[in-house]
Queue: 2 jobs
Job 1
Amino acid sequence: MVAPTPGKAPKKAKRPGKVRHVPERTCVACRTTKPKRELLRVVRTPQGRVELDAGGKKSGRGAYLCAKYSCWDLALKKQRLEHEFELPALPAEDREALLAFMATLPPDT
Ligand SMILES: [Zn+2]
């Protein structure tokens, strides 16, 4: 009888695919809750500018939108961002920039 050899215990590998707590945010257009990283953040800066915050790191009040043309279209047409940021209107320049960004989004399937 051979005693079972303990051998080298395999190191407990961290499971790469394991998801822990995922912060979620709601799209201001379609009101769908999604993981924050799947949404695009628009920020109202302390200077009163409204801009896309690609890195999600800018300070200011944020609003989230799906990376979908339809959500941006709705948000811009229905003044959802203005509502979210409590602004009477987006600065024209910023609105232009957001519209230009929207044009790069894929249309919904
Ligand atoms: Zn959406």
Job 2
Amino acid sequence: MHHVLLLVTPDPAAARMLRGLVESMGDVAWEVASIDEARVALAQKGCCGVILDAAIDEEPGPRDRAHRTLSALAELRAKDARRNAAGSFVLPILLIAPEDESLDDSDARYAAGASAVVRKPLAARRELLARKIEAILGRAGREDHAACAVNAVNVPGRGVHLALTGARTRGRTGFRMNAKPGDVQNGHFVVLLRLALAHGRRRGGWSSRAQLGITRNPEIPSRLRAALRAFVSPGYEPLEADWSGSFRLSPEMTVEVDLDALEEHSLPVVRKIVKEERELRAKARKRAG
Ligand SMILES: [Zn+2]
């Protein structure tokens, strides 16, 4: 199992770079663009660590930037300020400082709850970042994700299970969420199937509208989300969206797709998706030898 790291940055380039780095380490990245979203994500989903871009709070205001960074940091730290027996924070926060900021402020940053600080530019510091992330997770007692379960305070999404069973009634296709049966209209099911298969290939990976085939039906994700939300605890987001209009099923979810049953589906597009998935899997098996 992989760690889930919360990336808090309003900067798409930084988000892309950090997500690539986190994924190359075998972990999953959740991206949010504001402190408010980060607070909600921490409270509702929990995560193994936070990477906080100091650029998060750059709107002009009466206070200076360094001060705003510190208050954003302190606000997140207040969500989980527990320390382990060795004195390290249980929830590590890596602060990304602006390129031009002096390191004289580091004491204040650590006092406000940072576990480590790395200065921009990030592209030149990939290895340093990877080392720091590993180090702070290690100090937090999170050598692997199994250890994180012990630290979890509130992770309502954990244990949510989605099964695409292929059960059909007129114009609709069924699924089971946490063993409870539900269904959605066939057109929406096609999108759910694509999301589920993408989740199976790479948990936490994003699919664009084009990949999901919803360029002409922009309302489908919100309809699907509403259908899935009826099965989970309030506040848990089963279908996530990022700022570029891509979607994914929550990385916390486990997903199961009954390809045999779906092979018999009345919609040609479903049968085609199943066939392509089988081909992809056969190729992957071949590669794995
Ligand atoms: Zn973890």
